[in-house]
Amino acid sequence: MTTHFSGPVESTNGFVGDVTGDISGDVTGEVISTITNSAVDGAIAPATEVATISKGTAAAMTLAAPGASKVGKRLLIISKSAAAHVITITGLDSTENTLTFGAAIGESVELYAQTALLWSVISLNGVTASTV
Known about the structure:
Elements (H helix, E strand, L loop, with lengths): L34 E4 L3 E3 L5 E4 L6 E4 L10 E6 L6 E4 L8 E4 L6 E8 L2 E8 L1 E4 L2
Parallel strand pairs: 1-3, 2-4, 3-5, 4-6
Antiparallel strand pairs: 5-8, 6-7, 7-10, 8-9
């Protein structure tokens, strides 16, 4: 059963779940505006805020430098499948340029766009960094 609302909807505890349709008015809190899901090899767009990888076998992904519009923002990449995904990154702030997921669902990496050309690693969860 689907519930539809018309008129103003207010919550003192926030909303959880998907929102479809138009939103007007003020929005506060954490808003994830761009989510991508990849079931194939390819590129993760630097403008993405959350990227999920769901390919059933090891995905070979790339990530370009952040770009000027991404400076100061974070990017979270999460594995939705139990495969050893590999992401080659342009502009990682260390000697490493490759992140390898350890083949478990839920493994993740969080990056911060330090400059237009530089990603910094905030956290690695089941992911290792290396030079390839």
